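Residues determine shape. We examine one folded chain.
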Amino acid sequence: MDTKNFTIKVKTFEQLSKQELYELLALRTEIFVVEQQCVYQDLDFKDQKALHILGKKGNSLVAYTRVFNANDYFKQASIGRVLVRDQHRKQAYGHKIIEASIETIYNHFKPQQILLSAQQHLKQFYKAHGFTQVGQGYLEDGIPHIKMIKD
Protein backbone atom coordinates (compact mmCIF):
# COMPACT_ATOMS: atom_id res chain seq x y z
CA MET A 1 0.00 0.00 0.00
CA ASP A 2 1.52 3.24 -1.18
CA THR A 3 -0.02 6.23 0.57
CA LYS A 4 3.07 8.38 0.06
CA ASN A 5 2.19 11.74 -1.50
CA PHE A 6 -1.55 11.08 -0.87
CA THR A 7 -3.21 14.20 0.53
CA ILE A 8 -6.78 14.99 1.48
CA LYS A 9 -8.43 18.37 1.23
CA VAL A 10 -11.92 19.34 2.39
CA LYS A 11 -13.68 22.12 0.49
CA THR A 12 -17.08 23.71 0.26
CA PHE A 13 -18.60 24.08 -3.19
CA GLU A 14 -17.60 27.75 -3.22
CA GLN A 15 -13.98 26.90 -2.34
CA LEU A 16 -13.56 24.50 -5.26
CA SER A 17 -11.63 25.96 -8.15
CA LYS A 18 -13.11 25.53 -11.62
CA GLN A 19 -10.35 23.01 -12.33
CA GLU A 20 -11.14 20.97 -9.17
CA LEU A 21 -14.87 21.00 -9.92
CA TYR A 22 -14.27 19.89 -13.51
CA GLU A 23 -11.86 17.17 -12.35
CA LEU A 24 -14.21 15.75 -9.70
CA LEU A 25 -17.21 15.79 -12.06
CA ALA A 26 -15.14 14.08 -14.77
CA LEU A 27 -13.98 11.41 -12.29
CA ARG A 28 -17.54 10.81 -11.03
CA THR A 29 -18.67 10.36 -14.64
CA GLU A 30 -15.70 8.06 -15.39
CA ILE A 31 -16.57 5.77 -12.46
CA PHE A 32 -20.36 5.91 -12.09
CA VAL A 33 -21.51 6.43 -15.69
CA VAL A 34 -18.81 4.83 -17.87
CA GLU A 35 -17.21 2.12 -15.71
CA GLN A 36 -20.42 1.05 -13.95
CA GLN A 37 -22.54 1.66 -17.04
CA CYS A 38 -25.19 3.65 -15.17
CA VAL A 39 -27.07 6.32 -16.98
CA TYR A 40 -28.23 8.68 -14.25
CA GLN A 41 -28.32 12.39 -13.41
CA ASP A 42 -25.08 12.97 -11.47
CA LEU A 43 -25.48 16.75 -11.44
CA ASP A 44 -28.25 16.87 -8.85
CA PHE A 45 -27.87 20.39 -7.38
CA LYS A 46 -26.81 18.86 -4.06
CA ASP A 47 -23.09 19.59 -4.53
CA GLN A 48 -23.72 23.16 -3.41
CA LYS A 49 -24.64 21.98 0.12
CA ALA A 50 -21.94 19.30 0.37
CA LEU A 51 -18.44 19.33 1.71
CA HIS A 52 -16.17 17.79 -0.91
CA ILE A 53 -13.40 15.44 0.22
CA LEU A 54 -10.63 15.39 -2.39
CA GLY A 55 -7.99 12.66 -2.22
CA LYS A 56 -5.00 13.49 -4.37
CA LYS A 57 -1.89 11.58 -5.32
CA GLY A 58 0.49 14.33 -6.29
CA ASN A 59 -1.64 16.64 -8.43
CA SER A 60 -4.08 13.98 -9.61
CA LEU A 61 -7.51 13.41 -8.05
CA VAL A 62 -7.66 9.67 -7.25
CA ALA A 63 -10.33 9.45 -4.51
CA TYR A 64 -13.40 11.48 -3.67
CA THR A 65 -16.54 11.69 -1.53
CA ARG A 66 -19.07 14.32 -0.69
CA VAL A 67 -20.60 14.64 2.78
CA PHE A 68 -23.71 16.32 4.14
CA ASN A 69 -24.88 17.45 7.54
CA ALA A 70 -28.12 16.03 8.92
CA ASN A 71 -31.18 17.39 7.08
CA ASP A 72 -29.14 18.76 4.16
CA TYR A 73 -29.83 15.61 2.10
CA PHE A 74 -31.15 12.93 4.47
CA LYS A 75 -32.39 13.03 8.05
CA GLN A 76 -28.94 11.81 9.13
CA ALA A 77 -25.54 13.12 8.12
CA SER A 78 -24.43 11.23 5.02
CA ILE A 79 -21.53 10.24 2.80
CA GLY A 80 -22.01 9.79 -0.93
CA ARG A 81 -20.34 9.56 -4.33
CA VAL A 82 -17.56 7.45 -2.79
CA LEU A 83 -14.97 6.57 -5.40
CA VAL A 84 -11.37 5.65 -6.06
CA ARG A 85 -9.89 5.77 -9.56
CA ASP A 86 -9.56 2.23 -10.93
CA GLN A 87 -5.75 2.01 -11.08
CA HIS A 88 -5.47 3.19 -7.45
CA ARG A 89 -7.92 0.78 -5.77
CA LYS A 90 -5.30 -1.45 -4.11
CA GLN A 91 -3.55 1.49 -2.43
CA ALA A 92 -5.81 1.89 0.68
CA TYR A 93 -7.07 5.24 -0.61
CA GLY A 94 -10.65 4.08 -0.15
CA HIS A 95 -10.03 3.55 3.55
CA LYS A 96 -8.31 6.92 3.85
CA ILE A 97 -11.10 8.81 2.07
CA ILE A 98 -13.82 7.18 4.21
CA GLU A 99 -11.90 7.92 7.42
CA ALA A 100 -11.49 11.54 6.28
CA SER A 101 -15.20 11.72 5.43
CA ILE A 102 -16.24 10.52 8.89
CA GLU A 103 -13.78 12.93 10.55
CA THR A 104 -15.07 15.77 8.40
CA ILE A 105 -18.66 15.16 9.49
CA TYR A 106 -17.61 14.99 13.15
CA ASN A 107 -15.35 18.07 12.94
CA HIS A 108 -17.48 20.35 10.76
CA PHE A 109 -20.90 19.39 12.07
CA LYS A 110 -20.81 17.20 15.21
CA PRO A 111 -20.45 13.54 16.15
CA GLN A 112 -23.69 12.00 14.93
CA GLN A 113 -25.22 9.08 13.09
CA ILE A 114 -23.99 8.76 9.48
CA LEU A 115 -25.94 7.18 6.63
CA LEU A 116 -24.69 5.85 3.32
CA SER A 117 -26.10 3.89 0.43
CA ALA A 118 -23.46 1.23 -0.20
CA GLN A 119 -23.01 -0.98 -3.20
CA GLN A 120 -23.72 -4.40 -1.74
CA HIS A 121 -20.36 -5.90 -2.70
CA LEU A 122 -18.66 -3.24 -0.50
CA LYS A 123 -20.50 -4.22 2.69
CA GLN A 124 -17.38 -5.57 4.43
CA PHE A 125 -15.38 -2.48 3.46
CA TYR A 126 -17.90 -0.18 5.16
CA LYS A 127 -18.36 -2.60 8.06
CA ALA A 128 -14.63 -2.20 8.78
CA HIS A 129 -15.35 1.51 9.34
CA GLY A 130 -18.18 0.90 11.82
CA PHE A 131 -21.17 0.87 9.47
CA THR A 132 -24.00 -1.63 9.94
CA GLN A 133 -26.57 -2.71 7.37
CA VAL A 134 -30.10 -1.48 7.99
CA GLY A 135 -33.03 -3.11 6.17
CA GLN A 136 -33.08 -5.11 2.98
CA GLY A 137 -31.08 -4.62 -0.17
CA TYR A 138 -32.45 -2.63 -3.10
CA LEU A 139 -31.53 -1.68 -6.65
CA GLU A 140 -30.19 1.81 -7.25
CA ASP A 141 -29.45 2.62 -10.88
CA GLY A 142 -29.47 -1.12 -11.62
CA ILE A 143 -26.80 -1.95 -8.99
CA PRO A 144 -27.59 -3.85 -5.74
CA HIS A 145 -27.24 -1.49 -2.75
CA ILE A 146 -27.79 -1.60 0.99
CA LYS A 147 -28.47 1.18 3.46
CA MET A 148 -25.78 1.37 6.15
CA ILE A 149 -25.58 3.43 9.35
CA LYS A 150 -22.69 4.35 11.63
CA ASP A 151 -23.78 5.35 15.14
User: Anything to note?
Assistant: The longest strand covers residues 60-68. Residues 18-35 form the longest helix (18 residues).
